[in-house]
From TrEMBL, chain A:
The organism's place on the tree of life at top rank: Eukaryota
Lineage, opening ranks: Eukaryota, Fungi, Dikarya, Basidiomycota, Agaricomycotina
InterPro entries linked to this entry: P-loop_NTPase (IPR027417), Rab_GTPases_membrane_traffic (IPR050209), Small_GTP-bd (IPR005225), Small_GTPase (IPR001806)
Subcellular location: Membrane
Keywords: Membrane, Nucleotide-binding
Gene3D superfamilies registered for this protein in UniProt: P-loop containing nucleotide triphosphate hydrolases
GO MF term list: GTP binding; GTPase activity
Coiled-coil features, chain-numbered ranges: none
Annotated family: Belongs to the small GTPase superfamily. Rab family.
Entry protein name: Ras-domain-containing protein
Source species: Hermanssonia centrifuga
Automatic annotation (TrEMBL), chain B:
Family according to the record: Belongs to the COG6 family.
Disordered, as annotated region: 1-22, 62-94
Name listed for the protein in its UniProt record: Conserved oligomeric Golgi complex subunit 6
Superkingdom of the source species: Eukaryota
Domain Conserved oligomeric complex COG6 N-terminal stretches: 109-213
Lineage of the organism: Eukaryota, Fungi, Dikarya, Basidiomycota, Agaricomycotina
Signal peptide positions (record): none
Alphabetical GO biological process terms: intra-Golgi vesicle-mediated transport; protein transport
GO cellular component, one term: Golgi transport complex
Amino acid sequence: MANDYDIDATELLETYDFLMKYIIIGEAGTGKSCLLHQFTHNSFKEHSQHTIGVEFSSRTVKLGEKRIKLQLWDTAGQERFRSVTRSYYRGAAGAILVYDITSRASFLNLSRWLADARALGSPHLVTVLVGNKSDREEDREVEWAEASRWAAENDVHFLEASSLSGENVEAPFLLCARSILLAIESGALDPEKAGSGVSYGDRALRRVHSSSRLSFGSLSGGRRKGTVKLRLPLAGKTRCC
Amino acid sequence: MLTSPTSPPPKYQTSSPRPHNPLSIRLYKVLAANLDDDTTKEALHTLADLYAPSLLNDTKVKPQDRELKGDRERLNDIDDEDDDTKEDANTKLPAQSPALAETVPGEIAARARRNLKKDVESKLAESSRRFLTAFAEVDKQLDTLQEYIGAMRLRCDDAQSQLGETNEACKALLDRAGSLREQRQEISTRQSMVMVFLSRFTLTPEDVEAITSREVPVGKRFFNAMNKAERIRNDCRVLMAGEEGPTKAGLDIMSTTSGYLEEAYEKIFRWCSFAFREMGRDAQIDVSPAMREAVRRLRQRPELLTEALGTLSQTRQATLLNNFTTALTRGGPGGLPRPIELHAHDPLRYVGDMLAWVHQAIAAEREFLEGLFGARAEEGGRMVGAVRAYGGTEEEDWMSELMDTAVGGLCTPLMIRVQQTIRSQESSITAYKIANLLQFYMLTMQRTLGEEAALSKRLREMTDYAYKAFSDAVEAQGRSILGIHLDLDDLTLTPPFAILDHTQILREILTVYESSLGDESSLRGKSAKDVNEAAAQGCRAILDQMVDPAVEMCVLASEEKHRLRPSWDREIFIINVLTYLQSVLEPYSFTAEKRDVIQDLVAGRVVQLIEDHFTGLLVDTGLGEMVDAGKARQGDEPLSHLPAASSSRLQAALHKFSVWLTSNTVDYPPRLGQLSVQSLASRVHRAALARLVRTYKWLCEEVRNPENKYEAAATVLGSERPFGQVHLLWQIFGIDEEETGDDIVTDKTT
């Protein structure tokens, strides 16, 4: 009896419908590892040191009716690791681009990071811009509106988060996953192909989808990128609150 | 006809013979009845009417009486015993109606009464006769009945006795039935016990089917059946451990269940092998709970598990290799991201991309295996950081083993490419960068796979190979600088181009080393001194290979050039080269050791230079002759008696010194101006000047010494600057007397 219970419990933890690879990038000290730690552990990582090279972690999230497993590659922001980290762009389905709202320099360098991501990553790479450390309003150096404009100009999603308080930490990951699912739904992305950064988890689902691309349940309904963009002001509201 | 409406119908007769009581009750009732009611009156009137017409109309009452009387008589006939009372009643009744016959004499009435009486009597007689005949018939019938009853009684007695006999006979049967019933009860109890036993100690056909049939998939039902079989075995073992020892039933149960269990394990094994072969082909794989449970159970049969996992590892190895090749040559869907080999011209990117791919594959593989062995549950299914603790558990061993095999297939293609890349590098810098990159990944893989994993070993080999290539390149560089000859026609004293090129390479190497991706995490938490020590340790060989040949070349080549071009200032050249090397090493804290070595060399050269410079100064100032004379004198001979130190010579030397003091060279000695480090030039100069002052001081003391027999010593000294005043000379040179000393010479700090 105990065994049966165990099976059920782990079943909840383990199975998933999709697997997606993310890469977390941005200048050193913007709080990438902390953001990720908050996302995977729901706690703030105290006395965090610079990441060396790349570090790996994973988490399964639920989006609509789909369970999505995220393989997260946390990269070092320091320049000297560029030669290592840039190799991890390939095969990533999503990129979380992080800057520090209290550091103008980290914001000004975003173009370079985005250019790298676009050049090295897959053409369908979904990028979400995250302004981290939103809890430190008094030290703010980058206005929300400015970052939002930059995001719109560069066609990336944007929101602000705090890895200290945990506010909005899950949102970028979910936003990214949603966009990727939509890309799959529209046929732009094929999880069957290797190197796309996405794959089916369940073999049964794979077979179903290879024959018909019907819907993702609650997600379907003709939503396109525009719908997601509507979220941007919403994200702003949460900041104001 | 005569019967009144109230009289009872003929059926009365059939019922009359038997009980008297109802009759008498009826009689009393009639007697007690009040005749004064309307219906009676009406009946009497009718009766009267019946008998009246033949008589007078006014006799209304009489028929009434007759009727009444008839009634009574009829009743009396039925009851013989009441005849007397009937007569009484008959006689009484006419007497009861004198009031009615008051107007008319009773003749008509009497006649009517008589008629009535006659009618009634005849009627009565008639009735009686009929009664008699009827009763005779009844009597006859009753006799027959009597006979029948008698016969019946006989039969009944007969039956009674037969029943008695039968009863007697049945008693034994009943007893038997009772005991049988008891037995049946007992047996059914036993049966239910046996059923309970069986249900507890044997598998139901469904369970057996779940275990043995190929139709039932490996899943919850199957595992439940297995659980049951195992529970039975455990229970049975407990039972057999009792005092009675193993029973036959117990042994049977054990052997049956063990057979089923073996079949179950076989089935799991087959299923796993099949699933592994199937799923192993996918790049990313999810582990179903049934699969995890199957693997967990199969651990009870290590030989089966080993075989199944062997299949898995082979499939995974082939899959990973295949995927790797695809990533190398075909890239992602539609060629994007581009194939890794497209960037083979960029060695760092090429090698980095391949290693990153391997790293990511390993992470995914690790996740898969953790899922397979259910090892993630205890970690909450999450993990940050590549460092893993090795608990040494069985699962960990399995996972390491499987990882090793699966990833091991990538070693060869990776190694070929990496080595090829390294071999084709001409630049030692690139080789060094590749080596650094390889080392970084080697450390990462060692943490993930363990040091003994094939890939870790291969990466170590590759790293060593890359370092060897780098080291070879550096060595070649060193050799090539050693073989360089200085341009004889170049009279400058600055470091030659060969050295500049060489140090440029060195500088780049050091920059790479400083930002190297080495095992930084292992140094975390250690003191700065340890970190520096480790850093210095790492680059010692590089510095030896790069700096030493440069120094050697500069010494040897300059010697040769000096031989051919004696005018060329070799000392200055060497010091310039050495200080230049120092300046190159300066920005890197970990080069302190090498810098110290060079500093020692420089210091030695500086001492030499000071000596040279001082000698030159002695010649320039003319004091040299006096010094030489002082050295040459023997015993207590007065200095002035020596020809070289005669008064005139002394005069000339002092004059020359005075002239020299006014010249430019006091401040800017032309030779030292060629030292590229100006502070060093001034240090050398000051040290030489200090010695010059001391020499002058010595000379003054010697001249003033009467034993040297100079005439008018004070005058001679006072005739030329600095007039024999040593402190004045200190001031002219701008040197603090106290600061002077040997420390100037040996001072290493610039």
